[in-house]
Amino acid sequence: MRCENCPLTDCAVVPGYGDDPADIVIVGEAPGNTEVKEGRPFVGPAGRLLDRLLEEAGLSGYRIYKTNSILCRPWPHRAPKPGEVKACNPRLMEEIRSKNPRIIIGMGAISLRALTGKNGITKHRGLVYEGEPPIICTYHPAAVLRGREDWYHDILQDLRMARDLLEGKKPDTSFDWEIVTARYQLPDLENAVVAVDVESNSQGCLLCVGVGHTDPETGRPKVYITRWPADQTVVGWLEATLTNNTVVAHNIKFDAQVLWAHGISCGIDEDTMLMHYGLVNKVGRNGLKDMAATYLYVGDYDAEGAKHIGRLEELDFETVAHYNAQDVAYTLLLYRQMV
Ligand code: URA
Q1: Which atom of ligand 1 is nearest to 34's Cα?
Q2: Contact by Cβ (8 Å): 68, 17
Q3: 28 CB less than 6 Å from ligand 1?
Q4: H or E element that contains 259
């Protein structure tokens, strides 16, 4: 096979293989030695581990098609180069489209780039890239075989997320929110669980405070955002609400200290970051965005905001308030999952 624009020529080619049509298309990196010998993708040690993971995640009963970011085996053995992945991309897209899958799963950093254009598998694994169909990328099983045994459970978790999506078990993450300016817009809350989150600008000045609770009528989080500086009646409500209820936040000592610095008492009752750390006993991925992506399947909800991190004043207030509301709502939903 000779492909136009591809720097790889005269290499062994291993085509994709599997069910057609497929529920799941799995995209790897490039064929290895065993794959070349047998003429099928994922039949070597990494492929066998992948099959075990698929079985354990409850996916082996689905119609599965496996292929690679590039079909040629680079020789001597090395990772595919960006130009090679790019040259093979139209073939990959067409191959995926022809299998009409309900979900695409990318294994490893190369497939992440081929499927989403993003770099950094540690950052992007386990995020649902919404689309038709959605894409989830995870670590490559070969990495587990090369010493990252701790990634086995991460891959499993990401595959289980794919299964939940296929089974329509995406958690309900809808919530209601509004920007408030006066006390009469706010509910009386006592002995409830309330989540709090603050947003500040590059000078550390408070921009807004978000407080949310579970709306007894809808069962969904309801979040109230107060722009700072706030009306005195609203400040009074914040004081009362953050002392007469169980207060939960993600890394609560940060939010509580900002509030204290602005003269508002705030209880420090529950911290979703510490709870998660206690549950999984693992460093990393304890951030709110990561946890929301992992347990609520909301994807990279903060991708735009992250570009302005520490400089939120660059965004219009509605956008900042919406991020604030998402942080509060997801903190509350994560807390409800963990208790
Ligand atoms: N690794 C891959 O990425 N693809 C294969 O087909 C086999 C191993």
Answers
A1: 7
A2: no
A3: yes
A4: helix 252-261
